[in-house]
């Protein structure tokens, strides 16, 4: 029985280590499904957060923790702040804010579950991803906490920009895009 627990734990950590592919696929699918300017804006913010934290990482140049024995070779990139932690914290924070304060997009069902389910999934998942960065030996706790702080700050500022005027431009662009798609499909 202990081997099955270790195997399950190992598979779970392996999934969390590669969860960026899952998050990217789910985000792309959601953008395509909703054709929402707000979702596209959210995605642009996630990309900005991920790329800008890499710039900060190159400025700080703090090494990753030493490689654990029996593990693959150490990554050659820097560790402070954790990019995975920043990116997934951006996702979790923005999704929580959007579900709390934004109207539900017309492409989605306007039910209470649409507001509750996304944060109920993303917050525990984000927590698991963040903790796995230390468990897998990729980062130290301070590197992870710096990444979390960066992601939360990015999401908060990005959300504030959306709710303080960019949403109006986004809604106008969404209407133009959707009318263009509709007319292209009719032809």
How would you briefly describe this protein structure?
With 187 residues, the protein is mainly α.
Structural write-up:
The model has no long low-confidence stretch (mean pLDDT 79). The protein is globular, with a radius of gyration of 19 Å. The chain is mostly helical. Helix content is 78%, strand content 0%. It contains six helices and no strands.
Helix amount, in percent?
over 70%
Mean pLDDT: 79
Rg, nearest Å: 19 Å
What is the count of helical runs? 6
From the N-terminal CA to the C-terminal CA, the straight-line distance is 62 Å
Overall shape: it is globular
Q: Label the structural class.
A: mainly alpha
* Weakly predicted, low-confidence segments: none
Taken as a percent bin, the fraction of beta residues is under 5%
Q: Could you state the order of secondary-structure elements as H and E?
A: HHHHHH
Q: Count of DSSP E strands?
A: 0
Describe the secondary structure blueprint for this structure.
Elements: H1 2-17, H2 19-34, H3 37-60, H4 83-101, H5 112-135, H6 141-186
Helix pairs in contact: 2-3, 3-4, 3-6, 4-5, 4-6
Supply database-style keywords.
globular; mainly alpha; 6 helices
């Amino acid at each position: 029985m202990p081997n099955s627990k270790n195997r399950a734990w190992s598979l779970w950590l392996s999934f969390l280590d590669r969860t960026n592919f899952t998050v990217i696929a789910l985000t792309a699918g959601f953008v395509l499904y909703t054709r929402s300017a707000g979702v596209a804006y959210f995605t642009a913010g996630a990309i900005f957060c991920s790329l800008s934290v890499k710039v900060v990482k190159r400025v700080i140049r703090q090494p990753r923790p030493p490689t654990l024995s029996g593990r693959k070779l150490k990554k050659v990139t820097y560790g402070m702040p954790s990019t995975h932690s920043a990116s997934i914290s951006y996702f979790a924070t923005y999704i929580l804010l959007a579900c709390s304060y934004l109207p539900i997009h017309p492409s989605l069902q306007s039910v209470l579950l649409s507001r509750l389910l996304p944060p109920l999934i993303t917050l525990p998942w984000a927590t698991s991803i963040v903790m796995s960065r230390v468990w897998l030996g990729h980062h130290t706790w301070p590197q992870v906490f710096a990444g979390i702080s960066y992601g939360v700050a990015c999401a908060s500022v990005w959300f504030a920009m959306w709710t303080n005027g960019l949403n109006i431009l986004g809604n106008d662009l969404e209407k133009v895009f959707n009318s263009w798609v509709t007319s292209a499909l009719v032809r």
